[in-house]
Structures are given as structure tokens and as C-alpha cells.
Amino acid sequence: MGANSSSISELPENEYLKKLSGAEPISENDPFWNQLLSFSFTTPTNSADLKLLEEATISVCKSLVEKNPRTGNLGSLVKVFLSRTKELKISAECQNHLFIWQAHNALFIICCLLKVFISRMSEEELQLHFTYEEKAPGSYGTECEDLIEELLCCLIQLIVEIPLLDITYSISLAAVTTLIVFLSCQLFHKEILRESIIHKYLMHGRCLPYTSRLVKTLLYNFIRQERSPPPGTHVFQQQTDGGGLLYGIASGVATGLWTVFTLGGVGSKPSPQLEQCSPLANQSLLLLLVLANLTDAPDTPNPYRQAIMSFKNTQDSTAFSSSSPHAFQINFNSLYTALCEQQKSDQATLLLYMLLHQNGNVRTYVLARTDIENLVLPILEILYHVEERNSHHVYMALIILLILTEDDGFNRSIHEVILKNITWYAERVLTEISLGSLLILVVIRTIQYNMTRTRDKYLHTNCLAALANMSAQFRSLHQYAAQRIISLFSLLSKKHNKVLEQATQSLRGSLGSNDSPLPDYAQDLNVIEEVIRMMLEIINSCLTNSLHHNPNLVYALLYKRDLFEQFRTHPSFQDIMQNIDLVISFFSSRLEQAGAELSVERVLEIIKQGAVALPKDRLRKFPELKFKYVEEEQPEEFFIPYVWSLVYNSAVALYWNPHDIQLFTMDSG
């Protein structure tokens, strides 16, 4: 790059880059490095420009791949960066802009080179490239064999030890992004990496003692959501002789170079929301998710996952367990606030899922919050806008609800939270509704969407499980929520009748012909009957546990009583129908005694009186409906491709050629 570079188009012919990738070895003490690291050019701000940068520098990278075994220039560049980082903390404290700028530029070049190297060679070959020195062709020295480990450790130290200031924002972001690039070897393998040189470095040796500090720093970066420094933060006077260092980088470091790592995204345009967000927070969260989902080593569990599973609140004074070597403390209130505010992104929802599922301290804290609606409402919005979300995001949101509904306290408290004017719910004006009733409405809407569109049994099962967990605690259901419960049952009933009719017709038609195989209507019928059974159990659970709290559900039940007739004698539903049939008969009798043409208010009044009069011992007790979320076997087969698809699509920091990606197809990614 160097002092003469001013645009991407000039990079292939840049004399400094040509020398770096040429046949001549360059000593780490050569003045050349000052010239190479003094660049400022119009930097990419979108995916198209990022692609141009990749294409403009690919010839340089290929040349370095070819010549580096003889020159060792990659190792020299890394050593130059390592030597400069030793003074970074002092430079930050002394506001030494120039020193930080050059260190950042060195890391930027390393990151660009690494990305190409990793996409074109195995980890073993990459490791060799870090050992080559300026000796005879193909030889390498033993003292440099751990240069990768030294660089990884240096990047981690940079992240956890350098204070986050305007002048250090760019290099902190570059360090996080370079670690992501180091781990991106997974993108170029179809199978999940279970043994990796980079993983080994990060889980053992010099990097291991920094585990808890790294996880804590990445979490705090996410919590703080620091914006990129404003224009003009870094202002140097350009030299007038035209040589040496270019100091005029107000648009370089402050608002330019960092955008190489933050704006754009493969196949997407920067949105106003994206431009307003914190690139460091976004990249830190992605790195945290990648680290947390590394596979366990044969002899060691993933320490980053251990750290995420065991950290505690700063207000928790209990001693750390000896079984949690990477535990630390963090402010749960700040973390909770950030999680509530950031749920529009897949990665924040995935983080919330991981914390609720794996960290008992976080789960206990969240369930004890008195403002739980701040967390639940964004999750419900994800489900409500299911058409606009990818399936993984919807699954994560749904599993979060399932985990929350495992707690009876949560199931009670959500009916005590009254919300006003839910503007994003378009089907009906909801001027006042409990959080519990809104949750029911959104989950039922998700089920109905799934029935007509995706027909995903897994989604059905989790939706119904969440409703079942809540059913015994239903309180003061909104009339619309009660109607939707019965409407869903009506939809299922019609679907059942339709499949039954198709099966009957198919059977009749097959009697005269043996040419074509029968469609598997029996399997379809079994699935729909399982769902109907579940809905009947949910209604029954509410009636047996909280009948007197839910007059609107009884009203809806009576209004659509004919729906249940066909299931009274059905062998699959006879037992569960006993209570529902009893409630319908009991309240129907009381309404008949009250006379004809009753107003809605009068009917509800009779229902409330009847609920008190109905002897509880007449309702048969069934086992409590309780479903716990259980993670699938080998969850990494789902989570690792998911996390890397988020990196690929939202790490607007980087551009990867889609033709090189092996981990997932571009359709699913």
C-alpha cells in the first residue's frame, strides 16, 4: 500500500505491495515497513467495494503465497506488527495517533492476506507459511514455529488490555475481525472441524489464561454498543514534500479504514439501521458466538463455552466453583438491557438462547426481572413477522419462549403485565391486553402460518409445548386470545376431516386398481390427531386448573360447542374429552335456565357464577403438562453452520467469494 496509494484500483500496481509479495526477502528492521504502513486511500463502504478490494489484491496475495517460502516476508510483516503492539497501551495513554495508525495498518494487511491464505490452503500449509524465514528456498527455522500462537495471543491481549478510546477503536475492531478470519477455516470445509490447529492454539497454551477476560470483553463490547468515532477524530498534517508518511487520515482511520470491516455485507446494501449500529459490538458478538461453538477438544472441553456457562452477576458474592475455572463476573442489569434492545439481529437472539439454556445464573436473573415484557415483546415481534425472518431466527425465538415457559413464576407473571396499544399487531386493534394473552395470540398465529406454509413438525411441536407449559396458569385471557384458541382447534378439526375424507376416497378408488401406490394418509392422520390431542389437553389443563379465572375461554368454548361433538366418542380423545364435555354440559344447562336472547355481558356473568358453583371434584385430574427443551444430539451440526452463516451474511467486515464456501450452500446460508 504505502504513501502513494489513494484508491483500490491502484493497488495491483502499488510498488510497496509488489515488493512485499516479490522475490526479495525484507528484514523486519528494514525502513520499507514504515513506507508500506503509511497508506490512506478511499476505503470500501459496501459489499461491491469490498469485492473490488478482494479482486484488486488477489494477484498480490497469490504472489506472496508463491514467494513467501523463500522470502519469509509474511513472518517479517507479522513480527513488525508484534513489535509495534508492545507499545500500544502506552501509545493509547499518550494519544500517540501515528503509532496506533501504523499498527492498525499492519494488522489490516495481515488480515487481508490471511483471508486469502486460509481460503486457498490447509491449516498445515498456513502454519508452514508462518515459519518460513529469509534462508535457503524452502527452509525454515525452529524458533519461529509458534509465530501463529504469538500472533493469536497478541490479538487477544490487544482486545482485553488496550482501553477502548476513539483512537484505539479501529485497531480493536481489526483485532476482533482478524481472530474471526483465523477461525474462518471452517467455512472451507463441508464437515464440522473437530480437530484444528487454530482451535488448539486458542484452547491451550498461552491463549488459555485469557479465556475469561476475552469472553468478558467481547460481552462488554456488545453491551456498550460503542459507535465508530466521528469524522475528524484522527487528524494529522500531511507532509509537504510528498514523501515519507501520509498523515492526512481523518477519513482514513476515523471513518474510512474501519468501514472495510463494518459496512456492506455479501449481497446486501447497508441499511440505515446497520450504519447506525456499532461495528465493534457486532463483530465482538460474532466472534463470541464462533468461540462458544468451537467443538470440544478430545482432552479438553471448550473453555469459551465454559466461561459463558459459568459467569455470574457482579452483585453475586458467592465463591466461584472449582469446577468453573473460567468463571467471571459481569453486570447483569447492563447485559439484560442490551439483550432487550438488540433482539432484531439473529446473533443477539442466538446469544440470548445460549445464555438462557446454558447459564443458570442468567436464567434465574432474567426470570426474576419485574420488567420481563422488555425481553418478551421483541421475541414476540420476531415470531409475528415470521414471513420476514429466516427459519433459524424463528426457531431460536421460539425455543427462548419454551425455556421461559418452563418456569411457573414466569407463566403467572405474564398475565399480570398489562400492555397498551400493541401497534405491530395488525390483525386486530389491541388497546389493552396482558402479556400472557399476547404471547398466546402470537404463538397461535405462528402455528397457523406453519400449517399453511412451511408445515414444519418441529416448529409445531415447540409452539404447542410452550402453550402447554402455560396452560395451567392461564389467567384472565383476553376474549380475542380465547377465540383464537378455539379457532385454531376449529382449523385443526377441518383439516382432520379433510384428510379423513381423502383417505376414505383413496381407499375406495384403490379397490378397483392396483397400479399406483396409496398416499400415506395414515401418517398424515396420525400427525394431525397428535396435534388435536395436544390442543384438547391444553384446553383441558386450563379448565381443570383455572376455570374461574377464564370466563372468556368458557364463552368461546360454548359458542363453538358443536366443534367438539365428533371427538366425544373418538377412541383417541375420549378420555380428555370428559372434562370438556362436562364443562360444556354444565354451563349450557345454566344458560338454558337463564332464558333466551342473553347479552354477552349476561352470559359472562352466568359463566362467572357457574365457575364458583361447579364442584372441582367432578373434573378428572390429568398429569400436569410440562415440556422441557432438550438440545438435539450433536447440536454443533446445527449451530456451527448457523453461526458461520451469520458471519458470512452480517460480517460486513469481510468479503468471501461464495464459490469458495464449503460449509453451507448459498441458499441455506
UniProtKB/TrEMBL annotation:
Cellular component annotations (GO), alphabetically ordered: Golgi apparatus
Record key words, sorted: Lipoprotein, Myristate
InterPro entries attached to this UniProt entry: Dymeclin (IPR019142)
Listed Pfam families: Dymeclin
Protein origin, superkingdom: Eukaryota
BP-aspect Gene Ontology terms: Golgi organization
Family, per entry: Belongs to the dymeclin family.
PANTHER family registered for this protein in UniProt: DYMECLIN (PTHR12895:SF9)
Protein name listed in UniProt: Dymeclin
Protein species of origin: Stercorarius parasiticus
